Request: fold
Amino acid sequence: MTLTKDFKVSLVDLSGEARVAYTPLGVMLLRAALLADEDLAEGLDVSVHAFLASTSLASVIEEIQAVQPDLLGFSCQGWNVMAYRQMLPTLRQLLPDTVIVFGGNHVSHQGDRWLRELPELDLVITGEGERTICELVASLRHGDRGFADISGLAFRQAGSVVSTADRPRMASLDEAPSAYLQPGLDLARFDVALWETNRGCPYHCSFCHWGGAVGQRLTKAASDRLEAELDIIGRSGVGTVFLCDANFGILRQDVDVAHMLVRTLKRHGAPHTVHVNWAKNHAATVEEILTIFQESGVHTNVYLALQTMSRPALKLAGRSERGRPEMTAMAQRVIAGGGHVGAELIFGLPGETLTDFRAAYDELFLAFPSLLIHPLWILPNTTYDADREKFNLITIRPDPAVDYEGVLQHSTLSIEENRAGLRLLLADEILIGSGWASTTVRALARWGGTQPTTVLDALPAFVASRPGRLSRQLARAFEEIHAECYFHRSLRSRVRSALFTDPSESRDLLLDFLDDLVADAELRATCRQLALHDTALLPRADLASSTHVSDVDSRFEADFDTHDTARSLSSGAAPDEPPRGGSPVTVRVRHPAGFADHLHDAIDLSARWVGRVIDVSLRP
Reply:
């Protein structure tokens, strides 16, 4: 058979972010694979359609319909698959002859479910898709709709779902053509470049299905390819790279990658920020990379992926304590040297009780400058999903917009304990994660002997008892999480937007909270000063890019150097006694303009708009 003359492929990615544009790496890789296949390239038209979460479904459908593709592929994750589900009946009416395919981590090995639930869907790809889609397109262009000989597919046959043999993983990423080394690539509209230097994960955590390659050896890309890709990203001016590697720092090549990033920054002025999933051990390599970044001005996020301090929960999660002491010691060295390393916890893990989680939070709060807390989601293809009866897991799906399952209860967590834990997570987001009282709560813990979770516990009742816009909004958030026993993905954005709308209202409410909470007059006076510092640094919702073309400075007065105190509290080097005043200062803060344009995307962008202290001067 000969190939049909022309064949159109449309590849769709719908982001989970409303305004921050990430490069759609998955579909870019598929496009590169198709165009690099010499047997397919002639007469083949491959288009990539990348949409923000704020795009209307009608607009998505219109753009796809305009192409009239022969093959329509969707990159599926938990945040977008339900939107695709809504669109499919309409697309099937508009494109009756188009072959519609799902692929991606969320639907891999789940073909039976999706093909039975979605009659408009034709095929589901399992595992790596670069080779599979080439073979699929070749088959369709030959007029063949029998797919039994193509590995990594699920399809209907005679009223049943058939899954073909799993496709072996690539031995090297260089077997797949680069997503970035393609002619005509335009990255100008993207804020963040997704980038992978290796693929796979040697661990087998019960809550994770990393790219469908958990418990697998890593496959790498060659250094010259990585350097060329990074040069494209840097020359395009994309300021942030998100490394899709599961354990950056696990390979010696990762040190070379760090040097590549530094060279690219010096050459092009971008990327200046790198978001990383760090290795669970290999402390020496991680520390070496952090030193390279710190000395070269590359900004990065650093969190130890502890997940839990409970040994029973750690064992059930498929994790060991190997490397933990070394990683913790490394973190303390970095923190003592003025760097930043946080710790990551997951609430709701089987084997851990609410008491265990509270104890872990209190233990880690002063040991690390920040904690990153997540609720447990039950995801497809994970051990938790497969062995629900073993853990007595009961889950819930109250959000029709996503395909995540929240935990309602399990063997070591009752539903009421779960509600209490989720309230704790929300209070942490409001007081600590947003920055509203991050230094202030540290002062209470350091100098008042108040357990951080005690402060978090006090917030729901306080905001419920107070009048005013901000109190009502925060109280409603607590009511929602109690009623639904579920942490909606949008909740963080909503509470941050509420806190950032009116800085003076946020400041006054925090001061009232301290007056209500702290009995000791001297400690309360110290904390009130630090509350002024915390709230002065919050992103400013009154600064729009249309009216403020440069950074904006503001000042506040304090009874002591709150900036120095905040730094000492964050680094764990705070003195035994709190400052008592007597050295009044003026603190000058600089905010970048433009946050008003992004207020309702607070979870996406707020860190970019936090104020920074640029001067502290003694007042006469």
